[in-house]
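Here is an idea for our session: we take a single protein and study its fold together. Once you have written the record down, we can walk along the chain together.
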Amino acid sequence: MGHDISEESFTARRHRLVENLQRCGHISRPEVVEAMKAVRRHLFVPERTREDAYADHPLEIGEGQTISAPHMVGIMIEQLDLCRGQKVLEVGGGSGYHAAVTAHIVGPSGHVYTVERLASLAERAKRNIEEAGYSAVVTVVVGDGSLGLLEHAPYDRIFVACAAPEVPAPLVEQLIDGGKMLVPVGTAHFGQDLIAVEKRNGKAVKSDLGGCIFVPLIGEYGFHK
C-alpha cells in the first residue's frame, strides 16, 4: 500500500521523475526543476493511489476530477515564466499540487490564489497545501473560477487547469499589462489546445502551444453543467 512507502523512496522516485522531465525537454528552468523536486506530489493524491504519485500520468482525485500529469504541470509552469514575488491566480485548484509548485517559485514575497468550484476538493486542497508547507503563500477560494477573482486582481500570471470553450474574458481583464496566462481551450470530443496569452496594451495576444487533455471548466465563462 502507498502508506508503507518510505519518505526516502518517495524522494528518490520524485527526483527520477523530474530528471526524466528534464531529459524529455519538458522543463529546463532551474527554479522549475527545484520546485518540482521539492514539492511532495504524494501528499496531493488519495492514499490508494500514492503508489503511482510519481508516474507521469493524471490520477483521479475524486468528484470526477484529476490531478494533471507531472509533465503537463511542468510545461505550464515553465511557460508561465514565474518569478519571486509574483501574484498568481489559478483556476481549477483540484488537489492543490499545481498551486504548491507555483508557490514554491513565487516564494513568501509572492502569493497564489486558487479557485476551486467544488467545496469538498477545496477543503482537501487546503489540508494538502498545509501539510506540504505552503499555506502561508496559497489562498484556496471556493467559487466560479471562470469569473476570475476580482477582489485580488490584477494578477502577474493566471493559469487555468481545466478546458474552456474560449479564453474567459474576465481573466484577460484581471491580468496585468505585460502579464501571461495559460488556458486549455476546446472540448474532449473535438480536441483541446493549450493557449498562451500575453496581454499587450490591453489586448490578448494568443499563441497555440499544442494539444492537451483537461477536464472541462464549469462556470459562467466555461461549459454549463
